[in-house]
UniProtKB/TrEMBL annotation:
<dbReference type="InterPro" id="IPR051212">
    <property type="entry name" value="Type-I_RE_S_subunit"/>
</dbReference>
<keyword id="KW-0378">Hydrolase</keyword>
<dbReference type="GO" id="GO:0003677">
    <property type="term" value="F:DNA binding"/>
</dbReference>
<keyword id="KW-0238">DNA-binding</keyword>
<dbReference type="GO" id="GO:0004519">
    <property type="term" value="F:endonuclease activity"/>
</dbReference>
<feature type="domain" description="Type I restriction modification DNA specificity">
    <location>
        <begin position="183"/>
        <end position="266"/>
    </location>
</feature>
<keyword id="KW-0540">Nuclease</keyword>
<dbReference type="GO" id="GO:0009307">
    <property type="term" value="P:DNA restriction-modification system"/>
</dbReference>
<comment type="similarity">
    <text>Belongs to the type-I restriction system S methylase family.</text>
</comment>
<keyword id="KW-0680">Restriction system</keyword>
<dbReference type="InterPro" id="IPR000055">
    <property type="entry name" value="Restrct_endonuc_typeI_TRD"/>
</dbReference>
<keyword id="KW-0255">Endonuclease</keyword>
<dbReference type="InterPro" id="IPR044946">
    <property type="entry name" value="Restrct_endonuc_typeI_TRD_sf"/>
</dbReference>
<protein>
    <submittedName>
        <fullName>Restriction endonuclease subunit S</fullName>
    </submittedName>
</protein>
<dbReference type="Pfam" id="PF01420">
    <property type="entry name" value="Methylase_S"/>
</dbReference>
């Protein structure tokens, strides 16, 4: 009964506007309940044990499928950005443990030989404010008053289209992305771009840098207090990190391949996630209908 829609809605209506529900005893005492006979209660409980176990089994299988697809996507990206698409290519030892063997014609290059860190304080407030989230760089809605807001954004740094921006202060839950927008972002973030005359494929390196977050490559090079969420990647460690550097035409082919494949996988994961949402709703309806007498549960 306590897991039914009717019970939850009665509680929710009385604690409306509270972000974390914490109903008091007086609120709970005001909630109406349906109390069938003890025999009927036992029959309903047995019915719900069986039905919810069936639904929970399906939910568990769906969650495993989504997890397996996510793992497949991660492995796909690692394989493509470190080994390329040609399975017959001769490999050489990269000399970097997390890269392993890499195509013999690829270079292994330090970040500082391809990228430069830039910090350009904008000084005005006529650009969009960009936030780094695990869904990428997003334009922040500063009118809604949601999330952390600054008193002024004049000391924020510039981010231009195709600049990379990363939260180098948090290697556990931070992220990195290649900007689709001109905007400004926190001066605490790291903004970097290809050196003039050394432009490569932005999408290829976006996949590579994001993989370094997902697989804790950046984390291994960090310093700080990890249990307090202060695990930072210092600029010198970052710039001296070695990365694969395929020929630019290969970078573009790898990025296009990953765009197509990850889109397919993410579509499947989204379908499974929607199935999970609908099945959880159905589970609540089953419970609600049983404990409120909307369906007749046979005894015995």
């Amino acid at each position: 009964m306590f897991d039914s829609i009717s019970f939850r809605e009665q509680i929710r209506s009385k604690v409306y506007g509270v972000k974390v529900f914490h109903p008091t005893q007086s609120i709970i005492k005001q909630v109406f309940g349906i109390y069938p006979s003890l025999t009927e209660q036992s029959a309903i409980a047995a019915y719900l044990d069986k039905r919810t176990a069936e639904i929970d089994g399906i939910l568990s299988n769906l969650a495993r499928q989504a997890e397996m697809l996510d793992t497949y996507k991660r492995e796909l990206i690692v394989e493509a950005v470190t080994k390329g698409l040609d399975k017959s290519a001769a490999l050489k030892d990269s000399g970097v443990d997390w890269i392993g063997g890499t195509p013999a014609h690829w270079e292994i290059t330090k970040i500082k030989w391809m990228f430069e860190i830039v910090k350009r304080i904008y000084g005005k407030e006529d650009r969009d404010v960009l936030s780094i989230t695990q869904r990428g760089l997003k334009v922040k809605d500063i009118e809604s008053n949601d999330g952390q807001l600054a008193e002024s954004y004049t000391n924020y740094q510039m981010v231009n289209v195709n600049d990379f921006a990363m939260n180098s202060m948090d290697l556990l839950t931070g992220w990195v992305d290649c900007s689709l927008f001109d905007g400004v972002t926190s001066p605490d973030y790291r903004v970097f771009r290809f050196l003039p005359g050394k432009e490569q494929c932005h999408s290829y390196y976006k996949y590579l840098f994001q993989m370094c977050y997902k697989n804790r490559i950046f984390y291994r090079l960090g310093q700080g207090v990890s249990n307090l969420g202060r695990w930072r990647l210092q600029a010198d460690q970052f710039l001296n990190m070695r990365l694969p550097q395929p020929p630019v035409d290969e970078q573009k082919k790898i990025a296009a391949y990953l765009d197509a494949k990850t889109s397919q996988v993410e579509g499947l994961i989204a379908d499974i996630t929607e199935q999970i949402v609908q099945l959880k709703r159905y589970r609540q309806i089953v419970i609600h209908d049983a404990v409120t007498g909307k369906i007749k549960v046979k005894e015995g």
